[in-house]
Amino acid sequence: MLFVGDDWAEDHHDVEVQDAHGRAIRAARLLEGVDGMTRFHELVAGFLPVDAKPSDVLVCIETGRGSWVRALVAAGYQVYGVNPKQAARHRELLSLPGAKSDKADVYSLADMVRTGRHQLRQVAADSDLAEAVKVVARAHQTLIWERTRHTLRLRAALRDYFPAALVACQVLTLTGADALELLAKAPTPAAAAKLTVTQISAALKKARRRDIAAKATAIQQALRTEHLGQADVVAGAYAATVRVTVAVLQTLNTEIRTLEGQVEAYFGQHPDAEVYLSQPGIGVILGARVLAEFGDAAGRYADAKSRKNYAGTAPITRQSGKSKTVHARFIHNDRLVDALHMQAGAAILHDPGVRAYYDELRRREIGHNAALRQVGNRLVGILHGCLKTTSHYSQTTAWSHHTQPAAA
């Protein structure tokens, strides 16, 4: 077998090939792209016997995604994507003084896969459709996060020079099309005070609001109330920044709706979509996010516990002597944890079995967030079973162990 360490950068890869005894056979710097991958194949093939298979080559690299990694997996190599923190700890074992260089890093990666591959997770290739779902689902979520950031900046600016606008927006949503249109039309207190009920009603009607007359009157009154403000020149400067932020938010709203359609289209084509949609608390967008982060490679998760550990919902136990504590996992996939938290929050509102489990946790004086985390952990296990058997969610099957004692 051959063991290859791959220290990647944006435009090149430093690689080192080791034999079964840890001796460095060859080291090279390969360019990113087709030419570099061709040289990688030639480099490895030069040290393999004629009857060897690509799976006899084990590659260790500090990433589990990207076109380079997918090309390695497609070629049949065993690829292990390691966390940079894992690689740093192994490097400390080999160099106690803490010396670091590209040559030492690539040697450490090759040695790591040679001596500790049984403790590493092999990269499993997802289907092309799952990769497509991941691309659009992550882009959609990123735009939503960006909209939240710009909304907070807009709120902070309005609080500083135009607090009456925030009062008026209590009737609406600050990121709504009508609120943004009114702010774009009248970003200063003086201009907003001149808005007529007709102008406000037109914006509300365009956004398809209900009870337009009452809301337009309430908004006009809020905009014309006295408030602590800034000097006109300062208010004008704030208004210039608000116009830009409003324009960004309007663009984000449009593109989020566009990407939402793409998420639905790609997710609907996946063969596991119906299984995900059958889960409590999961709709199309959440289902796409969970599928994107879990992937669909067969055998990636040996059991439900492995999936829970990756999801970050399973707790961590720390025990030393007579001390034993249980903690939440703080190192996790943020996107997946966010999606599972939202799923748990929706599931307790619509599924009686999930709600009963949540109420049981709360009766044990477990906090709301901790209870949602445990609910999410249970839902991940249920999802794993459904995907393994290609079956839809069944409330009776999922929660029978909770309901049987009560029935007895």
From TrEMBL:
Source species, domain of life: Bacteria
Matching InterPro entries: Transp_IS110-like_N, Transpos_IS110, Transposase_20
Domain Transposase IS110-like N-terminal: 4-163
Pfam family, any one: Transposase_20
UniProt domain Transposase IS116/IS110/IS902 C-terminal: residue ranges: 277-358
UniProt cross-references to PANTHER family, sorted A to Z: PUTATIVE TRANSPOSASE FOR IS117-RELATED, TRANSPOSASE FOR INSERTION SEQUENCE ELEMENT IS1111A
The name this protein goes by in its record: IS110 family transposase
Species assigned in the record: Winogradskya humida
